[in-house]
Amino acid sequence: MSIDAFEKRERALEIREKLLEAQLQKANGVPMLDFDEAMSELKALAHGKL
């Protein structure tokens, strides 16, 4: 396996791990941000307001 293929595979596995974690949090009733709330927080972070 080439280094590029390995790195691509690792990135895909990291994304799958994050998705699984989010699915478990949602299944366990952890409060989630809706799209508008998430975008507001990201914009605030980008502008140094958080």
List the total number of helices.
Answer: 2
- The tally of strands reads 0
Helical/strand content category:
mainly alpha
Rough outline: flat
Largest sheet: none
Average pLDDT, to the nearest integer?
Answer: 95
**What are the segments in which pLDDT stays under 50 over at least 5 consecutive residues?**
none
- What is the N-to-C order of secondary-structure elements (H for helix, E for strand)? HH
What is the share of helical residues? over 70%
Portion of residues in beta strands equals under 5%
Q: What is the total number of structural domains?
A: 1
Distance between the termini: 42 Å
- Based on CA atoms alone, the radius of gyration comes out at 16 Å
Keywords for this structure?
single chain, 50 residues, 2 helices, 74% helix, Prevent-host-death protein
Task: Tell me what you see in this structure.
There is one protein chain. The protein is mostly helical. It has one domain. It has helices at 3-27, 35-46. It is flat and about 45 Å long. This is Prevent-host-death protein. It comes from Desulfosporosinus metallidurans.
